[in-house]
Amino acid sequence: MIRLGLNAALAACVAILTCGPAVAAPNAPGLTLYRHARLIDGTGGPVRPGMSVLVEGERIKTVAPDAELSAPAGAKVVDLTGKYLAPGLIDSHEHLATPPNRRAAEANMRRDLYGGVTAVRDMADDLRSVGELARESLAGEVPGPDIYYAAVMAGPSFFVDPRTHAISLGVEPGHSPWAQAIDETTDLRTAVTLAKGTSATAVKIYANLPGDLVKKIAAEARRQGMAVWTHSAIFPATPVQVLDARPDTVSHTCYMAYQVVGVPASYQAKGRIDPKAFAGGPNPIMAALFAQMTAQGTLLDPTLRVYAEDAERYAKNPKSRPPMCDLSLAAALTRQAFQAGVAMSTGTDGIAPASDPWPTVYDEIGLLVRDAGLTPAQAIHAATEVGASAAAQAKDMGTVEPGKLANLIVLAKDPTADVENLKSLELTVKRGRAYPRADFRPPTAADLKDAP
Q1: Using an 8 Å Cβ cutoff, are 84 and 415 in contact?
Q2: Of 21, 10, 13, nearest to 131 (Cα)?
């Protein structure tokens, strides 16, 4: 295997990825006026009937009541009488290239976009592949959501994981700019500089690191202007130690439960969480964690779909390894977090089978409503404004307001009344470009073969 030195790693990053600021997609349309909409603006507020949204190029120019906004000369007018207009959805936890598989990634991206998902947060993969997918989607060369991604950092002992080998072809696992092994001897300034050179939005702190090192990595990432995304337990770093590092988001509700039952020494040693430890109502130890998250503004990426998928797998084969965490426990802890004021997003950490014509994020939204007790309006808020914050893109997306990207969805039915109404989607608009649902070609099993 090849071990990249600093100069070689930087050269590889520059050669592979575009490291400059994002630019507008070419050939963005001119003026489009969406009139007579029932507006869901993404803030969590009520539906606003009789609203118009004027889009100029890739951004929203004006949002106003119909009576206050006339069609400018030359504008295309889209009549949305009886329809609902909302922000594009955001999946805050996808993996598009573990291992890289362009056909599968593009099929999933197409399903996402034509299903109303206009942005995703990719939580660490082979960034050589993800960077190109992000560029192609931004340029409009392939239909897909915008992609904001992380470079991963973990302890050296984590890099025996086969997934790290799958994303490191040609490079010794743990020694690429996008997946680095970190210990007390690491020059963190250089490590974060290398991660930033991949055009990553964030550093993802993953596993097998002590609490003091998690805190140092997070501080250096922030110093260099990167977001900090972490697992909610980093083994042996506890959830409390993770939160003390002040990450922007933490992923996986159930990992937080290790604060109650004890944190294993390594990611590889993690075991089943006994739900009996959480009997008798809201857990006070978890309450303290959620209070800290609320106070410092750390978001939760619950990934309930992971626990639902594990339960389904185990039901089909009871002789297989039991799930690490029951869905009922994951949902109860997520409900407790939400009731404590923790803002949460809608990350899936998986890809639905080809037989499902709708984006995987619909599963997570549904679980937040059915199992964690959010209202449909609250779940839509999690998938829009909170999702934008989770991806560190709140200034550009997540709500329907002037100056933000024209990332919009048009639905025949009200999703804040029933999240199943997301499936009444008629149109996605990403950066001002229209993608009618009628033009969607569902993925085949071959498209998603060996998908990550």
Answers
A1: yes
A2: 13
- Per the DSSP assignment, residues forming a β-bridge with 60 are 55
DSSP string covering 348-364, please?
Answer: -SS---TT--S-THHHH
* Contact present, 125 and 132 (Cβ < 8 Å): no
Number of neighbours of residue 225 by Cβ within 10 angstroms: 9
- Pairing outcome for strands 425-430 and 175-176: unpaired
In order of 103, 106, 109, 111, 356, the CA distances from 441 in angstroms are 14, 12, 12, 8, 12
Cα–Cα nearest to 305, from 373, 371, 391: 371
In sequence order, the 6+-apart residues with CB closer than 8 A to the CB of 53 are 33, 34, 37, 39, 60, 62, 63, 85, 400, 408
CATH superfamily of 6-23+88-398: Metal-dependent hydrolases (3.20.20.140)
Cis peptide before 177 (omega within 30 of 0): no
Which among 213, 226, 225 is positioned nearest to 184, based on CA atoms?
Answer: 213
- Phi and psi at residue 23, to the nearest 5°: -125, 160
Handedness of CA 353, 358, 361, 366 (dihedral sign): negative
Q: Which helix (H) or strand (E) holds 293?
A: helix 284-296
Q: Count the neighbouring beta carbons within 10 Å of the beta carbon of residue 189.
A: 11
3 state SS for 15-73: HHCCCCCCCCCCCCCCEEEEEEEEECCCCCCCCEEEEEEEEECCEEEEEEEHHHCCCCC
* Contacting residues for 149 by C-beta, under 8 A, at least 6 apart: 121, 122, 123, 124, 125, 127, 130, 131, 134, 200, 201, 202
Q: N- to C-terminal Cα distance for the chain? A: 23
The strand pairing partners of 147, in sequence order, are 120
Taking the C-alpha atoms of residue 152 and residue 154, their distance in angstroms, rounded to an integer, is 7
Q: Where are the domains of the chain?
A: 6-23+88-398
Furthest-apart CA atoms within the chain: distance in Å:
68
pLDDT at residue 24 is higher than 50: no
Q: Return the percent helix, strand and coil in the chain, to nearest 5.
A: 35, 20, 45
What is the C-alpha to C-alpha distance for residues 102 and 99, in angstroms, rounded to an integer?
10
| φ, ψ at 157 (rounded to 5°) | -70, -15
* Distance from C-alpha of 210 to C-alpha of 217, rounded to nearest angstrom: 11
**pLDDT tens for each residue of 311-359:** 999 999 998 889 999 999 999 999 999 999 999 999 999 999 888 999 9
For the stretch 391-438, pLDDT in tens is 999 999 999 999 999 999 999 999 999 999 999 999 999 999 999 999
